[in-house]
Every structure is written in C-alpha cells, then in structure tokens.
Amino acid sequence: MKCSILILDDDIELSENMKELLEDSGFEVMATDNIDEALNLIEDFSPSVLLVDYLMPDLDGISFLSRIREKNKWIRIILMTAFPSVELAVDAIKKGANDFIAKPFKKDELITKINKSLEELKFISNSCNESDIDEILNCLSNKIRRDILQLLFKKDEMRFMEIVRSLNMSDHTKLNFHLKILIKNKLIIHKNQIYKITKKGINALQCIKRLI
C-alpha cells in the first residue's frame, strides 16, 4: 500500500534508516530534521502519517503538536521517544498525538503502528466527509453533548427524564438546549417523547474516538 509518511527527527542516521525500512515496505517516505521544513511539507503534501521525535532542538514534540494540527487536522501523528512514561503518553494524546512508540523499536512494531494509523484514517474518511467532521467536532466539543450521545448509544432510546437522571442534571433548560443542538445536527432524533441516536450520531461517536 502506497502512502505518504513524514519523519521528523534530528537523528539523521535514524531517520535515513527508518526511511529505507519503510520504503522497502512499500511506503512513500519523506524525512527532515527541520521543524519549519516539516510544517511546509505537511501543508504542501498532506502526508497521512507523521513520525515525530519527542525531543527536538529548541522545541519539544509535545509543543509542536498543536502547530501540526493547525496545518493538517487529519494527519495521524505517532510520537517517538527514548523516554517513555504513562504521563508523557497521556499528555501527548491530549495535545494531539494519535499514538506513541518507544525507542528503540523493532521494524514489526513500527509497521504495526503505521498500519493501525492508516486503518483509522481510512475508517474516518469512509464514515464522515470533511464537512461532516468539522460539524461533528464543533457540535461535540461540549462534554455534555458527548455524554448524551454516548448514553443514547448504550441505551438505544430514552425519555427526557431518564436522560436527566442518568446525567444527574438538575438544570432541565440546559439539557434541553444541548438536546436541540444534537437534533439540529441530526445526531439524534426526538419522536413521541423518545430520544434516539441516529446512524450519523453513531458514526460521529466512532469518528470522535478515532480522532481523539
């Protein structure tokens, strides 16, 4: 499977070895040790996967993640580090990384991570078009709306007061406001006093899980 991969690492020897390894596995690969060049490559070529080192001169990989997302919201980011920890992994995911790999890694481990990222990207593109994803991200940026959608996904259908009790919300006006936004975005429907998640709502949940 041909797919564009960008490697950003100041260890030039490692980058070249990775580039050769991935090209031998059938991928199209670009590599750079320069942050500004990486941003330009992301903007110009829209690679599917970015392999980025955690520690770069003058800028750590975590801080760099938000700048990457400004250029490309859909690129799958795999953070590489020789200093793995649970705290770092959690922080990386929160800041925009999609996966995490500890150095040194084996060829099979790296290929597995990349293929997983490509499968996620394929799933997202098949489930939601770009305009849908923008709407979904905007609508589900609110935690209450995400909680409502997850609740209806689990319960299939619910009445208003059942949702109130499940979410432990005393402000009925606030809940009704969020329900109306979900209905407007066609993520749920309301009929005969019953709320149900739609197919688009199910896809939205799946897309959000893949993107986060």
From TrEMBL:
This is Response regulator. Residues 4-118 form the Response regulatory domain. InterPro entries: ArsR-like_HTH, Bact_response_regulator, CheY-like_superfamily, DUF7347, Sig_transdc_resp-reg_receiver, WH-like_DNA-bd_sf, WH_DNA-bd_sf. Pfam families: DUF7347 (PF24038), Response_reg (PF00072). GO terms for biological process: phosphorelay signal transduction system; regulation of DNA-templated transcription. PROSITE patterns: RESPONSE_REGULATORY. Keywords: Phosphoprotein, Two-component regulatory system. The keyword Electron transport does not apply. SMART domains: REC. It comes from Deferribacter autotrophicus. The modification 4-aspartylphosphate is found at residue 53. It comes from the Bacteria. The keyword Plastid does not apply.
